[in-house]
Amino acid sequence: MTGPAMVDFHTHTPAWHTGTWLGGAEFGPREFLSFMDGAGIGAAVLLAHDGLFNATPESNDELAEFVAADRSRMVGFGTVNPRNANAVAETERMLGELGLAGLKLHPWLQGFSMHEPALDPICEVVKAHGGILLSHDGTPPYSTPSQIAALARRHPELPVVLGHGGLHDCWREALALTVETDNLYLCICGTPPYAARHILANAPRGKVLFGTDAGLSDEASQHYAVARVAEIDGWGITEEQKTDMLVTTPRALLAGRLK
Q1: How far is CA 202 from CA 149, 196, 198, 232, in A?
Q2: pTM score of the predicted model
Q3: Alpha helix locations (H) across the chain?
Q4: I need a labelling partner for 195 at 20 to 30 A (CA). Which of 46, 59, 86, 95 fits?
Q5: What is the mean pLDDT of residues 231-252?
Q6: What does the pLDDT look like over 207-238, one tens digit per residue?
């Protein structure tokens, strides 16, 4: 089911302000689109590169410029640190002025709790712009599906995505919370194949996405992403499940964000 319609819901821009991968090879929007073509990916959600450790307005600016190279195939999710005094204003700017489609959070590496009240006004801004919140999950004790689901339940009209489907340790929890929480979605990204197969067999239809984590560190992540897409055919899932995960669900959730 790879091809023009497939959506990779979890990728990263490289350190484009240097014009390179972190490993030194030249890499910009043209190279990223070429990678997508080679992997059979039609469109991708790209996450801001600096947000993992140091959320800055500049990283959101660079992300917006990166995806502007082809908004028919690339959608950007910017980031803020909820503890920063300008977090609400920057969320408004990146979704309004910059035209980004969502917010990426990483509570473990950004150093905050998903239970902090500071997140609530940020979520309200994302909701007001029709955006999506995607959070790193699967890393106890800071980024568990239960913690993220609690935030989703406080904002029932905001789509919230578990960015890694629970990884190796929390995927059962991720599945259970996705079943129980109407506005919670699960992205299979780093989730082991046996878990992915079980998730797809038991999750509500229209709640499961797929991501490769491409672009996170260096050029080797491209090769991992290509292999990750190719291995889907060995998961033992149905064609209907593949289509839902790779095409129907992500495109419905993005709802016209791909121009």
Answers
A1: 18, 10, 6, 17
A2: 0.94
A3: 29-39, 57-67, 87-95, 107-110, 119-128, 145-154, 171-180, 193-202, 220-231, 239-243, 249-254
A4: 46
A5: 96
A6: 999 999 987 655 556 777 888 898 999 999 99
